[in-house]
Amino acid sequence: MEYDPVAFRPSLCASVDSSRTNRTASPSHLAEHMTQPPTTDFNPFDPVLRRDPYPRYRRLRDETPIAFSPSIGCHLVARFADVETLFLDPIGFSNAAMASTVGGEEGPAQPERTGRVLQTTDPPDHDALRRIVSRGFSPRSLAALRPRARAAVAEALETVRATAPGDVVDLVEALSGRVPVVMIAELLGIERERHEDFRRWSDAIASSLWAAGGADASGAVAALGAHLDAVVAERQRAPRGDVISKLIHAKEDGAGVLRPDEIPEFVTSMLVAGYETTANLISTCVRLLATKPRLAEEVAADRALVPAFVEEVLRHDGPVQLLMRRTTRAVELGGVTLPGGAMVLPLLGSANRDERRFVDPDRFDLHREDGAHLAFGQGVHFCLGAALARIEAQEAVDGVLDLLDALEWLGDPYEPVPALMMRGPSTLRFRRRQARGPARSADTDGGVTRRSRRRQRTRTTTLPWTAPAAMCSIARRPSAKSKTWLPTWVNAPRLQ
Q: What is the pLDDT of residues 143-154, one digit of tens each?
């Protein structure tokens, strides 16, 4: 799918106060003491730039770290410290901007979104919603989900193992696009036989969002909404322990937090956000393993490095490149004043490569000690599903490492997914190699069962840098003494 940056502009600007662009662009509308942001021709949605935005990010950080881009009618924030400050001020920078529908003049109209969802609400509504949903992401819940994530990865990769030698398989299709939907559907309590439907609906909805000329997702939205209406009605009669039941029966100050008719939209937002982010994270991890064989060998030889590998992928080439905020009043940031009602794009991809925060930031460093990144945001809007995304990515990396020597990377050039806020490869094509020896059972490795291997002693460590409160401690096995391709499972995280 190709994007026209000019076609993108009208619908985004239409979501803001119509006088906002003129106030920002004209000094006559600013108080004399305000420092007006400089302008830039940088457009983060340019399809050519999106293939490798990092050199331009560096230039933006050096020359115009906070600037107004007339081509898209938005202010851009490029440096780590400024992006972090923005995230820690949810009052001055409203999350309601995330409700903006981004699409071209010729794109199909998308269903209006009017309900309250985590991605578009501010405190105090956001706090009440988050308290409810966070119960499904408690340490106990996540401990139960890691084995399920491991099983979901194994099921997905079994289809790859079953392919004939010489066949070509796309791991975006076979792995990255499958595991996140399975995990989110299980959190929501969706029956296993409907997982494939959920994946199809999620694909359609995700591909229609944040894109000029995006595909019409009205059919998928209607089908998903109808199914969720039925699930909500059933959970009202017979609640379970899933997130949908918690949303239905949650009370705040004696009143229901969400009406039953609001829950399908809330659940849809969870499904799409969790699916798209985690799928792109897994895909980027796999591509890096395929293109950096020495790095793959190092991680494969010592599976205790898998969590650090995933964290460095999040920093170095994270799945979410930017978010949207809207100023609720004139706000001072990075030495300039942003006017009230301005659309602001914090560039996470740029912030996580800021030379002022990281040593040699363009280098992928598996042993980095300054790796605390902003890939999942910060503050009250820190990604609720961050720990789950980490679990899924860690298990996917572990599973792929077991299979990588049976696959030949076809070397396709990088082509990003057609989602303007996201980054990840759209395809990961491998050819199945000829078998090099007798097949091993999926449950054994050299006569050692996975169960007995998981009984081996682990030690608990934390990453070498100070992580956010929602970051996990990781249970790690001692370093491997030989370079083997055996999987080493890590225990479920314990949230601090």
A: 788 999 999 999
